[in-house]
Amino acid sequence: MPRSLLALSVTACAALFVAFGASGGLDARATPEAPLQERTNTVFVTALEENGGPVVDLDATAFTIKEDGKNRDVLRAELSSVPMEIAIIVDDNGTGIFRSGLVSFLQQLQGRAVISLSSVVGQTHKLVDYTTDVEKLTAAIVGLSARPGTPDGGQLLEGIFQTAKDQEKRETTRPVIVVVTVGGEEHSTLPAHHVLDQLAKSGSTMYVIPVASSALR
Q: How far is residue 207's CA from residue 2's CA, in Å, rounded to a whole number?
């Protein structure tokens, strides 16, 4: 799990809502008739003890935020109740090795997120659209047992790009993409920097969890 205070926690165990103001900051909507207005932004952070446990008693004085090299006023900090929207992309080459871990992941997130599930078999196919139905998601994950794989790789980058694009359209407050993969050659013709640009536009935070051995593909 990331230790940075400005990282989004996919476990939602210690997510904090932090609002900060940018006094005198530029507002894209400002016109001669409508002068510049102060704006308030929100970020979600994770605060962890050295042992990985959550810190839940922090207030605004515990945080320092800079934007464009300038200090911003931190207005308040509180535990977040905003649900995450998590898109899980499974690239397991037909091995089914991620099933147990993903089921446990779902159980920890119950009531804290809406989740979708996709599988990469050559191309990326959505198995379950965004839902809070853990039983439906679990059934789909269990179905990812041993099956024909794609030995020479797939179009994972295309799946990430499309997922980020969908999250941008949904205008989600806390979009997250979780990729679990066994690696392999990428067959998408989509340049990697286009994927990164789309991730930035969507505001999505992406976590990639690869297996340690490349022998699976």
A: 10
